[in-house]
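COURSE: Structural Biology Practicum
ASSIGNMENT: Worksheet 4, Part C
STUDENT ID: 0417
INSTRUCTIONS: Below are two proteins. For each, the amino acid sequence is given first, followed by its structure token string. Answer the questions at the end about the second protein only.

PROTEIN I
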Amino acid sequence: MTTLSFEDDGVDIVYEGTEFRMEQELIEEATDKDYHDVTDHEVLQLVEPDPALSGEPRRIGDIV
């Protein structure tokens, strides 16, 4: 299971027992979108090769 914790300047992630952080700039570059317009589903897809997406995607701007 992957855990995402969103903050104004990046996302703290736990993936397969490994903790790391994706900074805002990296997420913007990977998605070609403004950080606050990226969804939680898009971040999860950056981390996991084939994530099980459930529920409606939420914008980071709405989460933080």
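PROTEIN II
(use this one for the questions)
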Amino acid sequence: MNVLKIPLVDWGNGVIMIGVFALVVIILIVVIISFMSQGKNKDK
């Protein structure tokens, strides 16, 4: 039986993609919070 030497998961690429996704989510949360705080200031 031959040992399968091909990696089934590319951890380097996966970690980079998860990091980019987390960065995008954080940016979206900051933008939404800034829009909410600007709306409250206009109502006063």
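ANSWER KEY EXCERPT:
Q1: The radius of gyration is 21 Å.
Q2: The mean pLDDT is 81.
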